[in-house]
Structure formats: C-alpha cells, structure tokens
C-alpha cells in the first residue's frame, strides 16, 4: 500500500554532487515526515536527517551539516536530498523512511517504519 522509492544514487568523485529522490505512493506526502538514513557495508544504519510535513528540517549527523539539503515537492509526492561536496565516508546505501503509525513524526529508523529499497551512493577519491 504505502511505498517509497529512492533514486539518484551512483558513482561520484570526491567533491562531487548528487541529488537523491524519494517518491511516495499510497499516501499523500504532506501527511508525513520523511527521514533519510544510510548504511555502509558491515555497519549499522545511521540516521542522516529528516524533513517534517511542514518543511522543518533536522540534521542528525554533524558530518553532513552544510553539505546536505532537504526539500520536498508535495505536488510530486517527492522528497529530495541534495548532496554537495561528497566525501568517501558518505559512501553507502541511502534509504528514505516514514513512521508507520504516526506519519507526522520523524522516523527513528526501526524495522516497523516504512522503507524504500535504497539507492547506492559511492564516492571515490
């Protein structure tokens, strides 16, 4: 029913930029906060940032502050993550998610949240 699909990942060199998209279906995007998470191979998933249904933004990782920018286009049911000045440590699978029960809250990243399939971001030196 509720589905999230990420896209926009790929290979990029140090200092490059990518824009990730998270497209929602099965619900109206403006009812939900959308969070971004990432996971490097062999590591635990970490929470990156979140955009609320009214556009407020929270950044959880100091390392991406000032480099990653969230935005949403409710008419397109899409949230964007603009990633600038990418570094090798940004490499990983990026996921978007929303809270299953209380969509207006930023998701905490539990298995009970709704998740996209992920999109791979690889940053080379």
Helix and strand arrangement:
Elements: E1 3-7, E2 10-13, E3 18-25, E4 34-39, E5 46-51, E6 57-59, E7 68-73, E8 78-83, E9 92-98, E10 114-115, E11 119-124
Parallel strand pairs: 2-11
Antiparallel strand pairs: 1-3, 3-8, 4-5, 4-9, 5-6, 7-8, 9-10, 9-11
The proportion of residues forming helix, as a percent range, comes to under 10%
Question: N-to-C terminal Cα separation, in Å?
Answer: 40 Å
Query: Over the alpha carbons, how many angstroms does the gyration radius reach?
Result: 13 Å
Q: Classify the beta-strand content into a percent band.
A: over 45%
What's the total count of β strands? 11
In quaternary terms, these chains amount to single chain
**Contiguous helical run count:** 0
The low-pLDDT segments are none
- Mean pLDDT reading: 95
Describe the main β-sheet briefly.
7 strands, mixed
The structure class reads: mainly beta
What is the chain-wise order of helices and strands? EEEEEEEEEEE
Overall 3D shape: globular
Q: Care to describe what's here?
A:
The chain is mainly beta and 125 residues long. The chain is built from no helices and eleven strands. The chain is 0% helix and 47% strand. A hairpin with a 5-residue loop joins strand 5 and strand 6 (57-59).
List keywords for this structure.
125 residues; mainly beta; four-stranded antiparallel sheet; 11 strands; globular
